[in-house]
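Crash report, auto-generated. Payload:
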Amino acid sequence: DAGVIQSPRHEVTEMGQEVTLRCKPISGHNSLFWYRQTMMRGLELLIYFNNNVPIDDSGMPEDRFSAKMPNASFSTLKIQPSEPRDSAVYFCASSSQGIFSNQPQHFGDGTRLSIL
Amino acid sequence: DAKTTQPNSMESNEEEPVHLPCNHSTISGTDYIHWYRQLPSQGPEYVIHGLTSNVNNRMASLAIAEDRKSSTLILHRATLRDAAVYYCILAAGGTSYGKLTFGQGTILTVHP
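Recovered output after restart:
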């Protein structure tokens, strides 16, 4: 079975450019999570969706970040405009969650983003 | 979110058992105890989780204290591939959709 698929694996771009990260969750999973990992702050949850609806975006650092989930098989995380401090590894994860359930999350391999 | 405390690092020899401790003294009755690990240059990987009773799966065992204020992840025979950062996480039950808050974790080094 295919796992969580993220693209691109690596992205290098200049400050001020728009960056779009993509995620395809595991088929049948109804929850999707975006995380960011840096040496200084570790793994941080940015936003998560359940049944394509954003549930909690309190981890999104600022208005330059936005995330969408137009359907059950695709999500994007967009940064506009990008800044050097956005450089990090961004992970997407999916799971079969209900409001009271506690199922494991399955992570993708991440997108390593470098903003010059 | 309730917090967990783990040692920064631990070392083990190959083919020996490893006991990774985690303290969570402020755990609430609906919090699940999750363990994930992250190998170098990879995304986190689910290991095991439980609520009150001890749990076993093909990867590891989870021993939960009777008062639930601590738990131990047990790797029965460490291999070099088990070298990773191990995260102990409390996942709130109720209306949380299984939200996870990662701490700093324990860096496990396995010696051949």
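Post-recovery validation: The mean pLDDT of chain A is 93.
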